[in-house]
Amino acid sequence: MDYFLELFLGGLTRGSIYALIALGYTMVYGIIGLINFAHGEIYMLGAFTGLIVASLLTVFGLNQYAILVLASLVAMVYAAAYGYTVEKIAYRPLRQASRLSPLISAIGMSIFLQNYVRLAQTSDFLPFPALIPDLAFMEPYAHIIGSAELVILLVTAMVMLLLTAVIRFTRIGRAMRATAQDKGMAMLVGVDVNRVISITFMIGSALAALGGVLIASHIGQINFAIGFIAGIKAFTAAVLGGIGSIPGAVLGGFVLGCTESFATGYVSSDYEDVFAFGLLVLILVFRPAGILGRAAAEKV
User: Fold this and answer.
1) How many domains, in total, are found in the chain?
2) How many Å apart are CA 104 and CA 34, to the nearest integer?
3) pLDDT > 70: what percent of the chain?
4) Which residues pair with 221 in a beta bridge?
């Protein structure tokens, strides 16, 4: 039973990171109906920014809590700036073009960011400091769930609640919902659609950076290529849950994370991706809109 719980909680931890990244995919898709394939690289940039900031703050002798918070905040701000830039360069000029054009542009941005970090930093794996401290009250449960995993789960839960509150009860949240429903009508009633889209990219990028710092601190290393596979897995989670649905992105992340965890624990780590993408195929065959997605009717 302990082994099952360990795998389950480990899956939730992994799924939490997928969920944080998947939120960026699903929010952007919900607003403009396109997939930002450079989003995984924003996650990677956030992790590298966290490493640089943490290394600088360590010199000043700050404790782990302060370093974790400051590194996460700086990484989120930096990634948000990149998200804004990606939207302005790769998407906004092509908003009226065919759907294939911004897709190719986003893939090109992804390749550019990967090679930019590889040349600016290194192609080798870099050690990442353990910023999440061990919690004394977690010692009796350390064989099931570690302090880092607990912190990741709690932070993810708080972020989800905060994001839900922002979208439901704030002015920018109402503007996002209006833009997602009908951009033309939203503009007629005074919504600055360009600003809403930019803010959506920035929020999604900031959440991805937060996930990058947390998981890098937990795993202990980063590399310029970590954004690619993480981005693909998070996109899979978004599709599983129902692309365009924020609760669906969270649920899809948890389902994908638990699937990988149980596949690794009970079968083999070699089949981790097989089970993950096999599950995606099954969901799309029997429920093409995803677990919580709704089939959209289109006028012809």
Assistant:
1) 1
2) 11
3) 97
4) 127
Residue 293 domain-assigned (yes or no): no
Residue 126, beta-bridge partner list: 222
What per-residue confidence (pLDDT) applies to 100? 81
- Please give the Cα distance from 14 to 90 (Å, whole number): 30
CB 15 within 8 A of CB 255: yes
Residue 117 amino acid letter? V
What's the CATH code of the domain at 24? 1.10.3470
Alpha carbons 257 and 120: distance in angstroms, whole number? 32
Q: Which two tokens stand for residue 294?
A: 């709704």
Dmax (CA) for the chain in angstroms is 64
How many CA within 13 A on the CB side of residue 52?
13
Could you read off the pLDDT tens digit of each residue along the chain, which spans 300 residues? Answer: 778 888 888 889 888 889 989 988 888 888 877 788 888 899 999 999 999 999 888 888 778 888 999 999 999 999 999 999 988 888 888 877 777 888 888 888 889 999 988 988 888 889 998 888 777 777 777 677 888 888 888 988 898 889 889 988 899 989 988 888 888 888 888 888 889 999 999 999 999 999 999 999 888 889 998 888 888 888 888 888 888 788 888 888 998 989 888 888 888 877 778 888 888 788 878 887 788 766 554 444
Say if 295 falls within a structural domain.
no
pTM, to two decimals: 0.88
Q: Are 10 and 150 in contact (CB under 8 A)?
A: no
Host domain of residue 72: 2-286
The amino acid occupying position 31 is I
Q: What is the C-alpha to C-alpha distance for residues 169 and 165, in angstroms, rounded to an integer? A: 6
Residue 80 resides in a domain: yes
- Token readout for 37 is 């394939």
CA angle, corner 128, sides to 122 and 130, nearest 5? 180
Task: Let me know if residue 297 belongs to a domain.
Answer: no
Q: Find, among 58, 20, 84, 87, the residue nearest to 249 by Cα.
A: 20
